[in-house]
């Protein structure tokens, strides 16, 4: 029989006191965020959370007993202000719009919190008037553990955490990317590169999986892992400079691919700008695709071929799932995949001769 993973074992593993581990796992103040994250990571690696009763038992939430009770309550939308996850974002903002419209139709209010520190989150949260929580985008494990302890029903959009059991809503990233790459292959392309970091988000990783799956199914050799442009996004000038050097090296060695498949539209727009600076025409010299179909994807110098993610529909689906979860807390958890469609525009053409 495997030995139980205790707080003392976690403390010994990290070289900290049991007191620090206890505070970190219970969400109490007195431990800085970096230490809390280290404790949570170590607890996960050692198997602490897989043990029975490892989580603090969640308090029972009262069920909806009628329209009058429900109208008095709101849903908390947690969207930590990191990596452009704001209401002003052309991607995340549309998801929040979908949540707001769905809640309004149900006569429910919405409270948005952009706090990303677990200790601050506990201080501002008053769960008594909340039906549940919808998480939008990446949220730290420590913050999600606080939500789990409080006992709020939770649905996450475009993010999941192995330690937090809850319903999730995603675009069907793998299948959509596979269809997009198959379209490029059907156009005659055989030399591809993926641009975007698989560590950036679960959606980016799934899109990369769809990219490689399409190539393998068509018996085309994917780029070597250590040769792929797995950049952390193209928002930072340093990353653009890295891409400029990559393009220059490929031009010099005459090994430039005929198509760049980008993890999202923001990356594709930045890639297109750098390619034009290098004197390359889109799509005559190289085709570029995006993903998400944000408004700017249509307004570029060369409108992007992309995948339309129904962002408002994802928000509405999360509200529907949350209300269903409140009414039926014992039903199995679900991962909801929303279909996404290819939008054909001018950034894809036949491969150069």
Automatic annotation (TrEMBL):
Keyword rRNA processing: no
Keyword terms of this UniProt record: DNA-binding, Repressor, Transcription, Transcription regulation
Residues that span the membrane, as ranges: none
Pfam families registered for this protein in UniProt: LacI (PF00356), Peripla_BP_3 (PF13377)
Entries under InterPro entries matching the protein: HTH_LacI (IPR000843), LacI/GalR-like_sensor (IPR046335), Lambda_DNA-bd_dom_sf (IPR010982), Peripla_BP_I (IPR028082)
Keyword field contains Transcription: yes
Domain of life: Bacteria
HTH lacI-type domain sequence ranges: 5-66
Record protein name field: LacI family transcriptional regulator
Species the sequence originates in: Paenibacillus silagei
């Amino acid at each position: 029989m495997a030995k139980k993973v205790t707080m003392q074992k976690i403390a010994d593993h990290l070289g900290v006191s049991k007191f620090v581990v206890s505070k970190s796992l219970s969400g109490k103040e007195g431990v800085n965020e970096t230490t809390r994250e280290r404790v949570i990571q170590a607890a996960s690696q050692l198997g602490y959370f897989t043990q029975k009763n490892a989580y603090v038992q969640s308090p029972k939430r009262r069920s909806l007993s009628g329209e009058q009770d429900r109208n008095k309550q709101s849903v908390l939308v947690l969207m930590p202000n990191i990596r452009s996850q704001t209401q002003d974002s052309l991607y995340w903002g549309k998801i929040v719009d979908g949540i707001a419209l769905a809640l309004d139709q149900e006569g429910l209010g919405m409270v948005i919190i952009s706090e990303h520190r677990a200790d601050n989150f506990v201080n501002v949260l008053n769960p008594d008037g909340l039906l549940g929580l919808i998480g939008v985008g990446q949220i730290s494990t420590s913050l999600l553990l606080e939500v789990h302890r409080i006992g709020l029903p939770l649905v996450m959009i475009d993010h999941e955490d192995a330690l937090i059991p809850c319903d999730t809503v995603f675009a069907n990233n793998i299948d959509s990317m596979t269809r997009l790459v198959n379209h490029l292959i059907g156009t005659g392309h055989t030399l591809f590169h993926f641009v975007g970091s698989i560590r950036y988000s679960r959606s980016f990783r799934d899109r990369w999986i769809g990219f490689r799956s399409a190539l393998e199914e068509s018996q085309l050799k994917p780029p070597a892992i250590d040769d792929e442009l797995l950049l952390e996004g193209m928002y930072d000038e340093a990353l653009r400079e890295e891409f400029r050097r990559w393009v220059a090296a490929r031009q010099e060695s005459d090994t430039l691919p005929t198509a760049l498949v980008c993890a999202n539209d923001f990356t594709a727009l930045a890639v297109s700008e750098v390619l034009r600076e290098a004197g390359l025409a889109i799509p005559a010299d190289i085709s570029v695709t995006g993903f998400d179909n944000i408004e700017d994807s249509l307004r570029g110098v060369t409108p992007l071929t992309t995948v339309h993610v129904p962002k408002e529909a994802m928000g509405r689906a999360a509200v529907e799932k949350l209300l269903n979860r409140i009414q039926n807390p014992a039903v199995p958890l679900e991962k909801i995949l929303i279909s996404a469609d290819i939008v054909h525009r001018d950034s894809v053409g036949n491969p150069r001769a």
